[in-house]
Amino acid sequence: MSFKIVEQCTARLNRSELAVPGSNTKFLEKAASSPADIVFLDLEDAVAPDDKEQARKNIIQALNDLDWGGRTMSLRINGLDTHYCYRDVVDVVEQAGDKLDLIMIPKAGTAADIYAIDMLLTQIETAKGFTHRIGLEMIIETALGMANIDEIAAASKRNESLHFGVADYAASTRARTTRIGGPHPDYVVLTDPDEEDGSRVSHWQDMWHYAIARMVVAARANGLRPIDGPFGDIKDNDGYIAQARRAAVLGCEGKWSIHPSQTELANQVFSPSEKDVAQAQRILDAMEKAQKEGAGAVTLDGKLIDIASIKQAEVLVKKAEQIAGR
Ligand code: GLV
Ligand code: MG
Fold first, then answer.
1. Atom of ligand 1 nearest to the CA of 230
2. What residues in the chain have per-residue pLDDT under 50?
3. Which domains does the chain have, with CATH numbers?
4. HEC sequence for the chain
5. Which atom of ligand 1 is nearest to the CA of 139?
6. pLDDT tens digits along 141-171
7. Separation of 175 CA from ligand 2 center, angstroms?
C-alpha cells in the first residue's frame, strides 16, 4: 500500500441519476416520486436560452415546495463559459441551497473551473449560515476535461463524482458518431478469413472503453464515484442495460437516466445481486471467526481469502445495507 491514504467522498447511493429539465414543471413534479437515487435538475443543455431564467425560478420553487423524500438532489448549472453560470449558482444556492446536496459542473475543463465554483459556493454557504457542505459532480465531456481529468478529480474537497458525458465528448473529440452512447457499426474488428470457406466476421467493439476506464481510474484514485452518462435511445431497454452492465464491469457505480423508464433499469444493474451479497457476508463471517480463533489465515470453502476480497466484501455488504435503508 502507498503511504498516501485515499480519502473517500461522502457515501451516497448513486445507481441511477435522473436528468430533469428545469423548464418543465410537470417533469419536476413527477421526478419527486421517482425511484432515482439522485435527481439532477437541469439548467444546461435541456433548457433553451430563452427559458433559462424561468427554469431557475422553477427549480428554486421545486426544491423548496416539493417533497423529495430524502432523495439526493443535484443542480446542473450552465458551463463556466456562459453568462448564466454565476446566476445559476448564486440564485439557486441563496434561495434553495439548504435543499441542495450537489452541484453538477458540465464540461469541466481544468482544476481552476472547480476552484471557481468552490469559491462561490463557500461564500454563499458562509453568508447564509448553511450547516451542510454542497458537494460537486463533474462531467468529463470534452477533450480538455479528459486531458486534465486527474487535476479535476483532485481539485476540491467537495468533489464526489465524475460523470462521462458521451454526447458532448463525441462532439469535442470529433468522433464520427451522432448517437448518444452505445456502440457504432463502424467500430469493429474484422476476423481473419476462415481457412476453409474464406468467410469473415465483424465483432462490434466498445468505442467508449478508453474514456470510461480512464474516468474510473481518476475517480477511484481520488475517492470519487465514477458514473456513466446518458444513453440516447430511450426505447431500447436492452441496449441501455448492456451499456450499464459494461460500465458496471469497469467499475462505474451508476448511470444516468434521461427518461424515467431507464431509472429502474439502472437501479437493477448497479445493485449487487442477493447471491453476491450472501457470498460477501460469508467472507466477512469467516474473517470474524478466524480473528476470534486467532487463526492467521482466513479460509472459506477450502480457499484462502486475501485482504482484497475482504475489502470488496465490506463494500458490497455496505451497499446492500444502503439500498435496504432507501
Ligand atoms: C451529457 O451532458 C452529455 O453530453 O453526454
Ligand atoms: Mg453534455
1. 5
2. none
3. 16-271 (3.20.20.60), 275-325 (no CATH)
4. CCCCCCCCCCCCCCCEEEEEECCCHHHHHHHCCCCCCEEEEECCCCCCHHHHHHHHHHHHHHHHHCCCCCCEEEEECCCCCCCCHHHHHHHHHHHHHHHCCEEEECCCCCHHHHHHHHHHHHHHHHHHCCCCCCEEEEEECCHHHHHCHHHHHCCCCCEEEEEECHHHHHHHHCCCCCCCCCCCCCCEEECCCCCCCCCCCEEECCCCHHHHHHHHHHHHCCCCEEEECCCCCCCCHHHHHHHHHHHHHHCCCEEEECCHHHHHHHHHHCCCCHHHHHHHHHHHHHHHHHHHCCCCCEEECCEEECHHHHHHHHHHHHHHHHHHCC
5. 2
6. 999 999 999 999 999 999 999 999 999 999 9
7. 15
